[in-house]
Write a structure and sequence with these properties.
Length: about 375
Amino acid sequence: MIRVLQCVNDMHRAGLETMLMNYYRNINRTEIQFDFLTHRPYKSDYDDEIVSLGGKVYYAPRLYPQNYPKYFKWMEQFFQEHPEYKILHSHIDTMSYLPLKAAKKAGVPVRIAHSHNTSIDKDFKYILKQYFRSRINQVATDFCACGEEAGKFLFGNVDYTIIPNAIDISKFLFNPDTRKKKREKLGLKDEYVIGHVGRLSYQKNHKLLIQIFHEFLNQHDNSLLLLIGVGEKEEEIKKQVADFGLEQKVRFLGNRKDVNELYQAMDIFVMPSFFEGVPVVGIEAQFADLPCIFSNKVPKEVKFHSKTEFVNLGAPLSQWIEMIEKYRTSKRIEISNELEQSPYNIKTAHGILENYYLDLKAKEGL
């Protein structure tokens, strides 16, 4: 058996983390075992399940610039105590430079950088992240990406392997009974529900989403916006909602364990992001047979459903409204070959990652 050390920020219920768990549940764990190196000083949503599947969770110092000396010292000691890790697979985009650099110094033979995005958050570490991006190819030995655009963004012309952001489709396929029960639980009757799942952050562009909904509501007053997720922009977004007088029309549902059922309650999924890799939530929404309206900054490779459209981020609100109107009376179905044959079905996709690790094991003689 090989133990792969998955390097993440934490293992809360978010897109990347859920994707990793989908693979973890489905790979052959007699051959490959996942352990997780996190960078938060607390227990996360998936930690108990990881342990139940035979994995381990480690808690490294946070990746703040003032912590870097402490971080590298911690990592040096970690690899001295854990020589069993021959593969480090890092999923924190440009910040992967730091754990990969530590792993290189420790002599870890396989160091995988995995790109999940097509741009960089403009936070206080933005300049550092640009620097790390320019040097990540010097500390990684192998490269993965969720899609073509994400790979080109982080690695340039270096060869990389695409690992689909696959999901367990059985949890998301449209079910009219689940829709009825979930809408009743939410107190919904005949409201038209626009939905969004994502961190309340700059990247997801909730400011535009609220503007789109406000404009749509002027034409269809029996509408509702469901926002699932938490994040650093929450208060700012709530203020915008209040400024528009939409407090009774926009529901902030926070982090949820029942996201798969909440898709059933929605009528359309709208995602006007500034940038994305291949968003897991966009894949989940399509499997739920929801019409999906993405900004043109979402890579086109996410699309596998005929009811998925893209709108230019700079387009007037009227174009977003027109696209929502196009699908306002759309009927949903329970299953179709179009969905089952998607490359994002974990029942077939898990073999891609499994074979990837086994090939590395053979090549490196691990």
